Predict the structure of ATPase.
Amino acid sequence: MSQKNDTTEPEAPQAVSSQFSEQVVEERLTPNPLSQFSMDKDALRLALVTAQYALRATRQQKPPTLNKPTGLLVLVNGMEQAGKGTAVKQLRQWVDPRLLKVEATVGHAPLSYQPIWQVHTGAMPRHGDVMVYFGNWYADLLYNVMRIATSNNEDKKKQSKNQKHIDKNALPIAKWQAYLQQQLAELKAFEQDLIANHTRLLKCWFHVDMETLHSRLQDSEADPQFLYQIDWNSKTVIEKFNEVAATLLRQQDDWIIIDGDDKSAAADDFCHEVLHAMQMALVSSRTSTTESTEKKSSSKTKKSKPKVEQAPFEPVKIPKSLTNIDDSKISKSEYNDALAKKQTRLAELLRARQGRHVVFAFEGMDAAGKGGAIKRLVAALDPREYQIYNIGAPMLYETQHPYLWRFWTKLPNEQTNHVSRIAIFDRTWYGRVLVERIEGFATDEEWQRAYDEINRFESDLVEAGTLVIKYWLAIDKKEQLKRFEARQDTPHKQFKLTDDDWRNRDKWSDYVQSAADMLARTDTKTAPWCIIATNEKRQARLDVLDHAIQQLSEASDGK
């Protein structure tokens, strides 16, 4: 019996747009800000579905595409009774509803020890998807701002009469404008990082006048749960809300304001804006290779502005702290005595921190002792008090989100029922500027941009009250070989050694240089690095404990 040989060549990557006819690309996928003046409803519905499937195709594996997988997050906010629900309902009817994710939140006070955006990261759309998000982090922000802005003397009198019932989340006396401005600045940076990591944003603000609002509040239609938990029947409250909203919209110029006076017209406007946002997301997903294959259509559009070239990346001089490795020894008895005392003290400090979130981040050369240090760090704790995350190569679904997403979703979270508020990372978000840089898993643009993204991420955590403690464990190359060979000869440690570990020894100098660049660019006042450079495992473990004790002691003293 003869076998049929499969000689089919694998499909070559192609641009998503090449899957459609030139006419379809021109009519439905080419960005057109004037579409609402040239498209009837039937044409709009067809264009929405076409763009939706084209965006989804950016993440497909077979046939592969040249486009970068890209998602769209639509933030929906604004006045109540302004037609938000009607607009999203129409959008869902006009696209494939299976591929449109819709989430809604109601504004609450920000949770303790975490940035205002953190609780929302689990709802992020995958690359290739479109998601509409009612409320989102702006509902939390507006809820909190309105709490400050509408506080009055009557509230203060009530609190003074019964101090026991003061809201534990009450904010210190401060001008709401300053609080709003500070939070908007942080959110702007967060959103820019989302966009840079292929999650495009469309921010829609629905608005109606006070008369229309009151008329709709009094009609017979059932009202949805209000996003900001304020009294929409109060003229004073509405005036203050409009003042807050005007301040927000002035500071952020990327909001699309939709007039909700006519709900049907508002829904059409919203659908046009979503179409344009999907079309722009498709444009942003094109790689340089994709663009070169589409020169035939470039004559139909204006020439794009040349990209501003970044200054070439300058590696730093490798510091002696990474090369001068201590070789001093410590006796086992001396080590055990010191270890027990330090572990006891660390456990006391961690339990006295009053719920404050703590994040330990461990990085270092292969076999530098990260696992052993973590084991001694948690030895005196109950397993329910902490979570350990061993970070390796990302899963497929993790690559379909912004780079930091898989770490955002592992942070301590007040919204969960977990007892633990301590997260320990064995390898971290710094993989982008270490292994991904060296192995070519990230482009030059991606890993060079990551330093600032990581600094902003850690700064947001610290600003919210989280304690971030970072370690770099260094050993020399000779000591690494000694530990590799010991692992190879020890059955219960062989699983720690992989072919990649041996191969990475050939790139030792590259890893040391990338570590030097990382330390120079991410050793910040808010999240400094602790470098532990010793070939003595026991001493490294004691040094890790000493630094953790110092950081927690200073935090408890309010330093």
Summary: The CA atoms of residues 144 and 479 lie 54 Å apart. Residues 160-173, 291-304 have pLDDT under 50 and may be disordered.
